Amino acid sequence: MEKKAIGGVVGRVSSVTHYSGLLEQETGESFSNRLKAQALSAGVTIHMEEVIQVDLDGLIKKVSTDQATYEAKAVIIAGGTTKRKLMLHSRLVALEGKDCVNKLKIQDEHTKEITTISSDGCGVFIYAGALPDSKLYHSLAQEDGYLVTNQKMETSIAGVYAAGDICVKQVRQAATAV
Description:
By secondary structure, this protein is mainly beta. The chain folds into two domains: 8-81 and 130-177, FAD/NAD(P)-binding domain (3-Layer(bba) Sandwich), CATH 3.50.50; 87-125, no CATH class. It has two helices and twelve strands, in the order αββββββββββββα. The protein has helices at residues 28-41, 174-177; strands at 51-55, 61-65, 69-72, 75-77, 81-83, 90-96, 103-108, 114-118, 130-132, 142-143, 146-147, 160-162. Strands 1-2-3 form a three-stranded antiparallel β-sheet, with no helix packed on it. It has a three-stranded antiparallel β-sheet with strand order 6-7-8, with no helix packed on it. The protein has a two-stranded parallel sheet with strand order 4-12. The protein is globular and about 60 Å long.
């Protein structure tokens, strides 16, 4: 089952690095398309459905989507993450500089006051992090919402495996998600 697009977050990035087997100038979209082609050539059936409920206890696992219910002896969860939203009460109103950013202006949403931050040669990179998409898996051991697995990717319930960014790990990149 795939909720939105093959490959998850990697499909939305402008370039893919730090992964073996990449083509020159690989984009997230081209990489995801190659992942899809490889899966299809191996006989994998891809269902574009959203998982809405799971029952992971017992010998037979049940996965219900917005279209059907599936049963299996084993399940691999690769639910990924969702971008965390910045909960700031301000917004960036201006970036200034000739060859690089050296000044930015931020406006307070409530007071409308504008604060200017100046620094020669600074850059701007806004990333608020990500949250694991693990709300359906409350019966599994978790740390800060990420699923706990061993080196074989086994979770706390027999027959349930997890892979990718939904798992507890130190680095969240395509190379560590597989």
